[in-house]
Amino acid sequence: MKRILIAVFLYFGMTGTLTVFAAEPIRHKMELGTEISHITYEEPGVMEEKGVFYGVAGSYTYRDALSLPVSNVSSYMLKVEGRFAAGEVDYTSSSSGSIDDIDDYLWEARGLAGYDFSSSYTTSVITPYTGIGYRYLNDDGAGKISTTGGAFYERESNYLYSPIGIEIAAKLEDGWSIGGLFEYDYFWWGKQKSHMGILPGYYDIENDQEKGYGLRGSLKLKREGKIVDFIIEPFIRYWDIKDSEVTIDPDGDGWIEPENNSTEYGLGFKLVYAWPDSRIEERQKSSHERTDYEYSRQYDAYVAESRQDAYRRTAGYSNASDYYNAVKEQLAEYASRGYVSARGKVDIDFTIASDGSVKEAYAYADDPELQDFAREAVINAAPYPRIPEFLNRDEISFNSAIVF
Cα separation of 208 and 321, whole Å? Predict the structure, then answer.
C-alpha cells in the first residue's frame, strides 16, 4: 500500500493539496495465523468448565473491485474462513465434584457475503455482511472420574447459524490501519450429543436445540509489509443457548440439555497475502511497454464509468474552488487506481479545454518511465468536468506535482 500526493496549482490564483490512498490492484486476499484464547462454558447452577485453547485460523476473500478505500467505490465481498483450536479444560460442579485436564477441541467454518462502502472524503471502509456458519465442539471426558467418584463421557456440540455483522477499516499513516467488527449470530439449529452409552445402564442421547444467539467482536491493527501484512487482533466470542428439546431414552426417561453459555476471549496473530487480478497485471505491464505517443485509451469499464459521470457534471459548481476540487479529485482517483507500481515525484503542466478534454500535458522528472506514467495519468483521466460558464474561460492551465 502506498499514498499518492497530488498538489495542484491553478494559474488564476487557487492553490491546494489533496492526499489520497492508492487502491491496491488486488481482488484476492488470504489470511493465515494463530490464536490463543480462554474459554468458559457454564450451565448456570449446574457446572462450569474453563481452559485455554491454542489454534490456527485462515480465510480467503474476493472483491469485485479494487482493494479499498478509494473514492466513492463500492464493491461486493465474498469470504470463506475457518479455524481450529484445541486445549484442556477443568470441570467444576457443586454436585458432581471436579475434573482437571479434559481434552477439548473445536472447529468452525463460515461463508460470508458483504458489500463495501467508502467515500472520497474518508479513508475508511464499512462492510455490512451476512452468511452461514457451522461450529463444532468436542468435550472428551470419557474415562475420567471426578473427585466425588462420578464417571464422565464424551460430549459433542453442533451449531448452525447465520452471522449478521458490520466491519469497519480505516487507513492510518505510515502503512498502519485499524479496524473492528461487531456481529450478531442468528441461531438456526443445534444438536448436542452425549455419549453416555459407555456407562452401564445409560444410552447415547441426542438433544435438539432451537433457541439461542451468539455475539462476537474484535479490534484489528494491521501493519503493511513488503510481501505480507501483519495483523494483531484481540477478540471476544459469546454464545447463549436455551434449554433443548426433551429426548426420551429406551427406558422412558427424559433427558434435556440445560441452558448454557460460553465466553471465549483471546488474541490472534495473522499474516496477510494479497495478489492482483491478472487483467490489472496485464494493464500495468502494458503501461511500462508503451512509448510517450502510444498511450492506450482502453480503460476498465468501471473506471470509464466513473470518468463519464464526471464528464456529465456540467453544473453545480458555485465557485472556482468547487471546480478545482473536482478536477484534482478526478486526477487523484485515476492515478491511485492505475499507477500503484510507480514511485517518485513528477512536476506536470497541463491545460484543460472548456469541454473537459486535455489540450496539452507536459511532465518533468529525472526518471523517464515515471515521467511517462505521470503524463499518461493526466491524459487518461480525461474528460474532466467541463469548465463552468461563470469562470468565463475557454481553457484553464494547471501546474501540479504528483508524488507516487
Answer: 65
Cell match 526518471: residue? 367
| Residue pair 58/272 in contact by the 8 Å Cβ criterion | no
The answer to whether 307 and 326 are in contact (CB under 8 A) is no
Question: What's residue 151's pLDDT?
Answer: 87
Residues 350, 358: contact at Cβ < 8 Å?
A: yes
Residue closest to 103 by CA, chosen among 49, 28, 178:
49
Q: Residues 103, 155: contact at Cβ < 8 Å?
A: no
Q: What are phi and psi of 262, to 5 degrees?
A: -140, 140
Distance CA 150, CA 236 (A): 33
**N-terminal to C-terminal alpha carbon distance within the chain:** 11
Unique residue bearing C-alpha cell 497530488: 6
Please identify which residue in the block is written with the cell numbers 482437571: 100
Q: How many degrees, rounded to 5, is the angle at CA 95 between CA 204 and CA 48? A: 75
- With a cut of 90, say whether residue 385 has pLDDT above it: no
What distance in Å separates the CA atoms of residue 299 and residue 286, rounded to the nearest whole number? 12
Q: Give the count of beta carbons closer than 10 Å to the beta carbon of residue 62.
A: 15
Higher-pLDDT residue of 372, 82 = 82
User: How many Å apart are CA 315 and CA 230, to the nearest integer?
Assistant: 46
Segment 246-255, tens digit of pLDDT: 999 999 999 9
Model confidence at 122, in pLDDT bands (50, 70, 90)?
A: low
> What's the CA gap between 57 and 81, in Å, rounded?
8
Report the alpha-carbon distance of residue 313 to residue 383 in Å, rounded: 11
Is pTM beyond 0.70? Reply is: no
Nearest to 118 by CA among 128, 133, 103: 128
Across the chain, what does the average pLDDT equal?
Answer: 80
1 close to 68: Cβ distance less than 8 angstroms: no
136-175 pLDDT, tens digit each: 999 998 989 889 988 899 999 999 999 999 999 988 877 8
Q: Which residue has the cell 478509494?
A: 70
Q: Cβ contacts of residue 200 below 8 Å, gap of 6+?
A: none
Q: How far apart are CA 66 and CA 306, in angstroms?
A: 14
Residues in the chain: 404
